[in-house]
Amino acid sequence: MREAHRLASSMQRAPMPLTGPLFKFALLQTSVDESYFFVCCHHIVIDGIGIGLICHRIAAVYSALAAGASIPPSFFGSLGDLIEYEAAYEASTDYLEDQAYWTKNIPPESESRYRLARAAAEHDGYESSGPVQLDPFVVDEARGCRRRWGCAGLR
Fold this sequence. Notes:
Layout: H1 2-13, E1 23-31, E2 34-41, H2 48-67, H3 79-90, H4 93-105, H5 136-148
Antiparallel strand pairs: 1-2
């Protein structure tokens, strides 16, 4: 168990440059009948909620396969479902109410960002970065996925 923790910690601490894999998965076997599934993803790819959804889905599929049962349908729907839900929300009065609330309660960009004071020479890691040139091949592949998944209306 200690070795599995050491390996997971080592993988988690290793730099994850944008030019390399942005996901790390490992199955760490600690005994004949015990294993731990390790997932580490770059924050640019997924947030805490998303990783929870993915791990829940992996567990559901694994449990079904281990029990010899049918794999259950995904509880979070398809990408098309998400797009339909977002479009309906943006057309709703809830959206307008939420927009009014956040507009009132978050200062515009020209005002203070309410961050902690820092030393003059200290770099602010949250400053905007320069533009990034995306690989045209990757952009074309993303557009192809968009069409295949029925999301052609997105830009």
